[in-house]
């Protein structure tokens, strides 16, 4: 296992208000800033926004991941931030993504909306491992669809 590689999994409730355009702009802003900041400190991961929740995996050195998570907890766009897992990781699962976003298109939003309805997806009822595996699977699908 690489020295000091950790994986953090959390979810939070969306507190962004406004219409669909304002929500899309806020999520785009979160993603753009995360990509720049995470690349600078060596953090990788994936973010999903769905049904009023953010679900995210962060990977990197313990201190870098802790710093990123601290900023998230202080961000007023996230409410009820809940840590599901923070453990040493054997390898990066999102090594090519400074912050990948699953669900970026209207088609994806419809697909993930169906996931919520069909599976009862609720990050509050998931373990860190099951949420990590869900995001990893969706990220692989995103990469395959983009190829």
How would you portray this structure in words?
This protein is of the alpha+beta class and 147 residues long. The protein has one domain: Alpha-Beta Plaits (2-Layer Sandwich). It is 46% helix and 27% strand. It is built from 4 helices and 5 strands. Strands 4-1-3-2-5 form a 5-stranded mixed β-sheet, with helices on both faces. Strand 2 (44-50) and strand 3 (53-61) form a beta hairpin. The longest helix has 22 residues, at 20-41. It is globular and about 45 Å long. It starts with a strand and ends with a helix.
Mean pLDDT: 81
Radius of gyration: 14 Å
Shape: globular
How many strands appear in the DSSP assignment?
Answer: 5
- CATH arch. level architecture: 2-Layer Sandwich
Please tell me the total number of domains.
1
Strand-and-helix sequence, N→C?
A: EHEEHEEHH
Q: What distance lies between the first and last C-alpha atoms, to the nearest angstrom? A: 30 Å
């Amino acid at each position: 296992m690489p020295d000091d590689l950790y994986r953090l999994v959390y979810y939070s409730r969306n507190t962004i208000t406004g219409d669909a355009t304002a929500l899309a702009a806020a999520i785009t802003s979160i993603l753009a800033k995360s990509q720049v900041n995470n690349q600078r400190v060596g953090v990788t991961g994936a973010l999903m926004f769905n049904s009023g929740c953010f679900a995210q995996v962060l990977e990197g050195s313990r201190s870098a991941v802790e710093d990123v998570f601290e900023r998230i907890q202080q961000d007023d766009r996230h409410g009820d931030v809940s840590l599901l897992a923070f453990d040493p990781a054997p390898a990066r699962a999102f090594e090519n993504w400074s912050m990948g976003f699953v669900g970026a298109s209207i088609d994806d939003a419809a697909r993930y909306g169906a996931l919520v309805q069909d599976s009862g997806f609720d990050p509050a009822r998931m373990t860190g491992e099951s949420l990590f595996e869900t995001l990893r699977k969706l990220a692989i699908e995103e990469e395959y669809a983009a190829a």
